[in-house]
Amino acid sequence: MMLPLLFMSSRQKKAQQKQRELVNQLGVGDEVRTHSGFYGLIVETYEDVVILESEDGSQTKWARQAIAMGVDPVSAEEASAPQDENDSVSDEGSIPGVTVAEESTRPEDSRDR
């Protein structure tokens, strides 16, 4: 009965050690995501604290343990290239991902009022 508990504990310790190593490897200039979903650029590092800069230029202080992962910035080539030939055609005022039929399935005139 104790063997599964020891195995799970060992696996959890390995995962925590891997996370600590990842966070310790990050330095100034790396883009990261915190566990709460905040994306920022590391501008200063201290022993257990980092200063993250958001896209609007504001800087906030975060604990190193709050960093979930490093983020790979999207290159300019990937961002400007069309993903699909259907995506390159865009209608004015259309909402991406929403398909609207041109003809209604039920006529509006036949309602009893």
Secondary structure elements and their pairing?
Blueprint: H1 2-25, E1 31-34, E2 39-45, E3 49-53, E4 59-63, E5 67-70, H2 76-80
Antiparallel strand pairs: 1-2, 1-5, 2-3, 3-4
Largest sheet properties: 5 strands, antiparallel
Q: Helicity level, as a percent range?
A: 25-40%
Within the largest sheet, what's the order of strands? 4-3-2-1-5
Number of strands: 5
Strand content bin:
15-25%
Number of helices: 2
Radius of gyration: 24 Å
Shape: flat
> Mind telling me the CATH class of the domain at 28-75?
Mainly Beta
Low-confidence stretches: none
Query: What's the architecture of the domain at 28-75 in CATH terms?
Result: Roll
Topology order in helix (H) and strand (E) letters = HEEEEEH
| Mean pLDDT level | 75
Q: Which fold does the CATH topology of the domain at 28-75 refer to?
A: SH3 type barrels
The helix/strand class is: alpha+beta
Distance between the first and last residues' Cα: 71 Å
What would the keywords be for this entry?
113 residues; alpha+beta
Describe the structure.
The chain has 113 residues and is an alpha+beta fold. The chain has a domain at 28-75: SH3 type barrels (Roll). 26% of the residues lie in helices and 22% in strands. It contains two helices and five strands, in the order αβββββα. The protein has helices at residues 2-25, 76-80; strands at residues 31-34, 39-45, 49-53, 59-63, 67-70. The protein has a five-stranded antiparallel beta sheet with strand order 4-3-2-1-5. A hairpin with a 4-residue loop joins β1 and β2 (39-45). It is flat, with a radius of gyration of 24 Å. It starts with a helix and ends in a 33-residue tail after the last helix. The model has no long low-confidence stretch (mean pLDDT 75). This is Preprotein translocase subunit YajC. Its main location: membrane.
